[in-house]
User: What shape does this take?
Amino acid sequence: RATDTKGLHLLPGTPIKRDNRYDFVTASPPTQTNSESIHNDGTDFSYFASIDFGSSGKTLYMLVDTGATNTWVMGSECKSEVCADHNTFGASDSTSIEVYSDEFDLTYGTGSVSGLTATDTVSIAGISVSLPFGLASRVSDDFSAYPMDGILGLGPPASKSMDFPTAMETIQKTKALSYNLFGVNLQRSSDGNTDGELSFGAPDTTKFQGDLSYTNNVDGSSMWEIPVDDAKVNGKSCTSTRKSAIIDTGVSPLLTHYKCSVYWISFLRKR
Assistant: This one.
């Protein structure tokens, strides 16, 4: 069961009305330890986990993003209009927060944020850590399209632009995990599924059938980038040379080679 902001117990898949203008669809409770439910905005566009920040345990809804390494939240001192529509976090929410004079500035494919860096106690998947993160004081209007209050960066350390440990590096230091790995299961709300989950330390065997296979990351890449031998649309190959693919949970569309896109559009038109 999930609990909304008013303390009511809700069945998985129940749309929750938040205090701000954003709603979301609840996920089922995680099926193993060191795991966090991943909720859905109801349109299969964005996926986020509820993470507790600070001494008060304030819940913020964080986009689960394997395409970004840096973690940040919308700060309570933020003057951007978009921050007024989201949950924010700051010194008034926690007696244990430490805010530094170091600045950060991040630009994404859609939007940008900037502010100061901070450290506070954060509970992620039942693991309590002292996590460094960005406290955004300026957030571009692009983020008004998303229900999340910040980004939980799960990309490789090589891609970080903030000069402090990533969330995964911080969790690893606790030695709470059997293995230094995480797994993400994204559910389709349009199919009525509620089994979204972020798992740390071991794969959740209830989320797949058969055996897992592993592949090395592409040499020199700062992203979770894997080699791809081929891509097919309705059984028809659309790649002539070996390619690679970036695994990015922060991007909803499937971005692919032009030839594959042409095959895909042709296939849909014939259906």
Summary: Confidence is low (pLDDT under 50) at residues 1-9. The longest strand covers residues 112-124. Residues 258-270 form the longest helix (13 residues). The chain has two helices and 19 strands.
